[in-house]
Amino acid sequence: MVESRKMKLGAFLPAPGHHVAAWRHPESVPNGGHDFEHYLNITQTAERGKFDMIFLSDGNGVRTHYKNEDELSRQGRMVHFEPITLLSALAVTTKHIGLTATASTTYNEPFHLARKFASLDHLSNGRSGWNVVTSVTDAEAQNFNLDQQPDHATRYRRAGEFMEVAHGLWGSWEDDAFLYDKQSGRFFDPSKLHILNHKGEFFSVKGPLNIARPPQGHPVIVQAGSSADGQAFAAKWAEVIFTAHQSLDQAQAFYTSIKSQAERIGRNPHEVVVMPGVFPMVGRTREEANEKYESLQELIDPVVGLGLLTGLLGDVDISGYPVDGPLPELPETQGSTSRQQLVYEEAMKKGLTIRQLYMSVAGARGHKAIIGTPTDIADELEEWFVHKGADGFNIMPPYLPGGLHDFVDLVVPELQRRGLFRTEYEGTTLRENLGLVKPAHPSSHPVKI
Amino acid sequence: MVESRKMKLGAFLPAPGHHVAAWRHPESVPNGGHDFEHYLNITQTAERGKFDMIFLSDGNGVRTHYKNEDELSRQGRMVHFEPITLLSALAVTTKHIGLTATASTTYNEPFHLARKFASLDHLSNGRSGWNVVTSVTDAEAQNFNLDQQPDHATRYRRAGEFMEVAHGLWGSWEDDAFLYDKQSGRFFDPSKLHILNHKGEFFSVKGPLNIARPPQGHPVIVQAGSSADGQAFAAKWAEVIFTAHQSLDQAQAFYTSIKSQAERIGRNPHEVVVMPGVFPMVGRTREEANEKYESLQELIDPVVGLGLLTGLLGDVDISGYPVDGPLPELPETQGSTSRQQLVYEEAMKKGLTIRQLYMSVAGARGHKAIIGTPTDIADELEEWFVHKGADGFNIMPPYLPGGLHDFVDLVVPELQRRGLFRTEYEGTTLRENLGLVKPAHPSSHPVKI
Fold first, then answer.
1. Residue B184 CA to its chain's centroid (Å)
2. Which residues make Cβ contacts (< 8 Å) with residue B214, sequence separation at least 6?
3. In what residue span(s) does the Luciferase-like domain sit (chains A, B) (predicted)?
4. pLDDT grade for A397, boundaries at 50, 70 and 90
């Protein structure tokens, strides 16, 4: 069977790489979070590999609730560029690759975010993406006048209204609203200006936005929540879904479920691009791949491993339990419920001790790890892609820049040889490369004075 | 007398230029607000002219309260890039020039703004500036859950607390906090991490900031408020003060007053750089300069002129008064009280009709206009500079790019010839070029767990 679909690829690029010990890798740039040349290098490498986009995760705080100063001092990657400023700089130093930033609907105002993403979309000529998150830590809440984060349901209700306001603001001006008629003195056609006048539970926003409609209509909306609320949100709003699965079965079940949820509310399921995370450790031989993996695993500081696991479990304190014993039963959390469940189930299924569990999640953090040759990795990606577990993948290089170079130089050519991945960018915008149509201007009433 | 001080120069760069009819000028780029190439061109021109910085004004809304759609449609420059994203892109495509963005303390959260300016400072290797404003329109308030803006005093009280929080957050990490010690696994020295734990009237912010201390310690703080509250704020926080004066007398009085206010609260008056705005219309002859000015004046649409005047008067409705009669007495406003007063006094002093007044403010908008040859302009700048009316000037080209090219090619060489202006950048950061010292790390207690 000839596969006519093409795989989509995102590059997940925290400065040192995805593995928790990446910053200790001999090749890594440990201060890469503040080093624009490093980001330019890895972004241009991803562009050379014809990736659809790079992807920056984000939070609005630093967790400092560790047991003591020594444990705190061992946490890497606490500091880095703010993503929208960094992507603005990358927008004018790259040509093709999409630029997706994470931003929270819980601690922002829709006018600011709608405006900044519109500005990024103009600077990049239509290559912006927004990974919508509702945030998951009290450390963030405490930077915004709160003691603890709003509960899960409230965060998602606010997120939904936030999206309505943002989409409304992006429709402030029609694409051809501006006349620039020097002769008559008419700057724009007022029948193509729309005033939002939104009043809702969380927001009262009049509009219009003080920037023209983004070239893509709006940034590509990316979402990664996998809880019930998260899936309902994704089915309604997301155009790209980042997700985490360990097996093809799980991936297929999610793929079918999310596409049919989208279809049930009237969306075209092809316009929801499902991209599970994959942590690839590439070797020229399997032995080399395993050695590279083990040498990174050996760099895991035990206190950091335990801290990482605590975070993945929604900040449940497990420090009182023996690390060589099993995970205790977990209470309900207001953090990321889906991630907690995924990690917990994995531990139960495999009968892992706490230590074994944190070692196993330190690399891929709940995402699928593939350790092997370019052929091994291409085989697995092909299987998931062809059997509808994925429309593409969010590639999480273990360390940077080496882990990305390996993927671009060794795995991408193999995917291209099999006809699974592009050899040239199809379009000029992120939306075009992802096979998504530009949304029609939302119909609403023009300004009336 | 040999003048040892050097003049500082900022370039005020709204996309079409400062004159209200600039976008209708035959040379102007009317869609320049969304055209990165246009901004790169004018910023590189300012850098070629050894300007200390470019300066972007900003607001978080579009005024739509005009009498009818036709009047609305004649308002230019309603849409443009968001400044911090635009300056991030310019940070990596320029080398020397400072990059100053306006941002409001009334409609932002300190964690976000402190973080974004820190990120811009890292991207530019120490060339960021922040023009702190408290905003002046209800149109902005209505995009942020309010019906009307908070009153003047409340806005300034919030601004003061905002600055305390922002400065505290910029001190989260000492300059040498990061060890990046791959061998021992220690990422940073915890004795050099500071937790803010701010709790005040408007903000409760724990910190720390998730980005390293900015290369400049913090962005250069710019301020333009001239009311009593504005001056008190500037004396306390500002490192650069943008101001507006029509005569050397006025400029000297302000210069002396603001420097002594700063000195009284323990600051070095040399570290408050006073830069009045200047609107230069450069001609190779005086006749040419006058002709260029008149040809721009002829492009002023009467409804736009009247609307501009209304805005400068704090949105006081004067539409019921005959345009060829005098300005009525004005009620108190919650907008920019200092600007209202300046414009009102100018009208009274010269006995201007409403029409004469809007024609006179359409170009320079309350700032000093100098229409003449490069020698004329250099003479006036030199007089203000030498006689302590100014430490430098915020140059407001009437139209772009032409008005800036004229200044850089004709006036800057004349200032350099007289020894008043640099021929090479003195330092690598904006702070160094302005002659400002990097602030010491604020003393506070390191993190304790």
1. 47
2. B117, B118, B121, B122, B126, B128, B170
3. 19-390
4. very high
Q: How far is A25 from chain B (nearest CA, A)?
A: 7
Give CA A115 to chain center in angstroms: 20
pLDDT at res. A90? 98
| Residues above pLDDT 70, as percent of chain A | 96
DSSP string covering B62-77, please? Answer: -----SSHHHHHT---
Pull the structure tokens for residue A284. 């020229």
More confident residue, A320 or A314: A320
Which helix H or strand E contains B113, and what residues bound it? helix B110-123
Say yes or no for a CB contact (<8 Å) between B80 and A108.
no
As separate numbers, helices (DSSP H) first and strands (DSSP E) second, chain A gives 16, 13
Q: Which residue type is seen at A139?
A: A
Minimal Cβ distance to B204: which of A145, A204, A301? A145
Residue B92 in contact with partner chain A when CB distance is under 8 A: yes
**Residue of chain B minimizing CA distance to A26:** B182
101-120 of A, contacting B, C-beta below 8 A: 107-109, 111-112, 115-116, 118-120
Q: What is the pLDDT of residues A71-106, one digit of tens each?
A: 899 988 889 999 999 999 999 999 999 999 999 999
Give which of B178, B209, B177 is closest to A62, Cα–Cα: B209
Cβ separation A69–B208 shorter than 8 A: no
- Is the ipTM here above 0.90? yes
Judge: B212–A85 Cβ closer than 8 Å, yes or no.
Answer: no
A138 inside 8 A of chain B by CB: no
Measured between alpha carbons, how far is B133 from B135 in angstroms, rounded to an integer?
6
Pick the CATH number of B8-286+365-433 from 3.65.10.10, 3.30.160.70, 3.20.20.30, 1.10.260.40: 3.20.20.30
CB proximity list for A175: less than 8 A, separation 6 or greater: A213, A441
A234-248, A352-366, B313-327: which has the highest mean pLDDT?
A234-248
User: What is the least distance, in Å, from the CA of B67 to any CA of chain A?
Assistant: 7
Distances (CA, A) of B354 to A164, A422, B398: 43, 64, 22
Please identify among residues 154-173 of chain B the ones whose CB lies closer than 8 Å to any CB of chain A. 173
Angle at B386 between CA B384 and CA B390, to 5 degrees: 45
Is residue A332 over pLDDT 60? Answer: yes
Residue ranges per structural domain of chain B: 8-286+365-433
- State which residues of chain B have pLDDT below 70: 1-3, 333-337, 443-449
Window A:293-312, CB contacts with B under 8 Å: 299, 301, 304
* Alpha-carbon gap: A402 to the closest alpha carbon of chain B (Å): 17
Whether A339 shows a pLDDT value over 80: the answer reads no
CATH superfamily for domain A8-298+367-433: Luciferase-like domain (3.20.20.30)
Q: Each residue of A153-176: pLDDT tens digit?
A: 999 999 999 999 999 999 999 999
Residue B446 burial by Cβ neighbours in a 10 Å radius (0-12, 13-18, 19+): middle
What SS3 state is found at A133? strand
d(CA B328, CA A184): 31
